[in-house]
């Protein structure tokens, strides 16, 4: 997607892509982070966000999931928590349109990039505190969002709790995406033996932000099985062979090999040999 500052416009764009994916046979469909609204300024954010019970995008997507009879992961919607804070929240919707899981982004993107780009997500967003793992007809799905991908312990925890698939909806900056997007996502797949599904925002947005695009679906051995080769809005599809999960974990059973260890003392004197 290339979400704008207009919620209705974004809902219409996302709905068209979701409908296209459903028509092409998808049973599970995922959209990027900030599906319904992508803004840069706080006044634009707080002027448009709603509480979950009043959010028009969420209601529209629940109706669409039921209409298309698909499992639908809305990568995230900005949900008002208070006058000062918003949640960056994923919603997993069932084929009946019910909300079966929620996940609030845990790790806040607070960085200064070369060229003057600066982000302070924690200024307006409340960080989540709990991981989320939910059962689908094909296995268990672990929910994460964007910057979470730089914290591998979250993904290993989800895998050891039973995750077969990991969702990483994102709005990666072009600069960090070009450097790290493919590497990070492939690493998360390899070290967990999970399929990774990463729908992404891409291109120059109305608010001025530029995102990387290149939505990806990655197999447990690290192979890219589907990729958006550009930053234009569209749909990528893949058939998921769940047997590959056990195969990858059988070849490298590292999930069962974790060992506790103590941290080294800083500047500890070396023992004489």
Question: What does this entry look like structurally?
Answer:
This protein is globular. Helix 1 runs parallel beside helix 3 (56-68). It has a 6-stranded mixed beta sheet with strand order 7-8-9-10-13-14, with helices on one face. A 4-stranded mixed beta sheet has the order 1-2-3-4. Strands 5-6 form a two-stranded antiparallel ribbon. By secondary structure, the protein is α+β, with helices and mostly antiparallel strands. The longest helix is centred in the C-terminal third of the chain and has 19 residues, at 174-192. The protein has helices spanning 7-23, 42-48, 56-68, 121-124, 152-160, 174-192, 243-251; strands at 28-30, 71-80, 86-93, 99-104, 110-112, 118-120, 132-136, 139-143, 165-167, 195-198, 202-204, 210-212, 216-218, 224-227. The chain starts with 6 loop residues before the first helix and ends in a 22-residue tail after the last helix. It has 7 helices and 14 strands. It has one domain (7-253): Carbon-nitrogen hydrolase (Nitrilase/N-carbamoyl-D-aminoacid amidohydrolase), CATH 3.60.110.10.
